[in-house]
Amino acid sequence: MAQLNAAFKKEESKGSRPNNYFPFWNMKEGEQAIVRFLPDADEENAMGFLVEKLMHTLTINGEKKSVPCLKMFDDDCPICKVSSAYYKAEDKTNGKLYWRKKQHIVQALIVEDPLPVDSESGENHEGKIRFLAVGYQLFNIIKETFESGELDEIPYAYEGGCDFIIKKTKQGDYPTYAVGSRFARKATDLSEDQIAFVTDNMVELSTLLPQHPGIEKVEAMLEAALTGTSYNDESGESKDDSSMKFTSSKDKEAETSVTTVTETADETSEDSDFDEEAASILADIRARKSK
Length: 291
Fold this sequence. Notes:
By secondary structure, this protein is an alpha+beta fold. Helix content is about 30%, strand content about 20%. The protein has helices spanning about 1-10, 80-90, 90-100, 135-150, 190-200, 215-225, 250-255, 275-290, and strands spanning about 30-35, 50-60, 65-70, 100-110, 130-135, 165, 170, 175, 180-185. The strands form two sheets. Strands 1, 2, 3, 4, 5, 6 and 9 form a seven-stranded antiparallel β-sheet that branches. A two-stranded antiparallel ribbon has the order 7-8.
C-alpha cells in the first residue's frame, strides 16, 4: 500500500492495440457497471494495476492521427515543446491543440454489466476480462482515494480487495462519471474459479501501449502538421500507420469516451524549462509556414 500511495502522489510528475475494451460509455444515464481491477502481470509496475498513456493528436494529410508522446518513454518530446511555446506566447488555442492527452489503461474483471447482450452471441461482458480506457474523471477518483488513505488493502487483491463502481450520470448537457463512481465500501474475495481464470488471462499492461515511434518520425509528422505539407514514409508513399491513428470509430470511442472533463490545469507547469526556447521555437514554426 505504501508503494501504491507513493506512486499515485508523484504520478503527475512523472504496443499492441486490442479492441476488447469494455464500452461502459454506452450505458444509459443512471446505470452503473461494477468491475474488479486486476494486477499487472508485470510485478515491477509501481502503479500496480494501470499504465499511463500519453498521446498527441495531429492533423496530417487531412486526417487526425494519434501520435505517441515521447515523454511516455522518458524522452524529450518536440510536440510538447511546440505546445509549451504556444502557451508561453499566450496562444492557448494552439497550445491546447498540440498538448498531450493523458489516459490510463487497466484490465478488469467485469462483475456487473448493464449493457444489453450481443444479438449474435447472446452474451454481454459480465464474467469476462476487458480493458478499460480510464480518462480524467475516473482516474481522479482512483487517485484521490489512494491519496486520502481510505483504502486499507490493495483494491485489486484477490482476497480482501474491492470492486469499483462506474456510474453514468449527467452534468448540464454532458454525461459524467465523476458523480457516483467509487470503490465499493465492502471488501470481497474472488472465488477460486475467478482467480484461476484471471491468473490464466491477465497480461502485462505495457503491451497495451504503442511502441516508441522514433524521434525522426515524430519530427516529420509534426513538420507536416505545422506546415500543412504531405507526410510520406521512406518509400515516398503517403504514410498510413494504423498504430498512429484511430483505426475505427470504436477505437476512437475507447480512447476518448471517458474524458468529458478536459485536463487543462497546469498544462505547462512541468515544461517551464522551455522558457528560453519558446521564442526560437515559434520563430521556427513561422519560418516553416512561410516556405
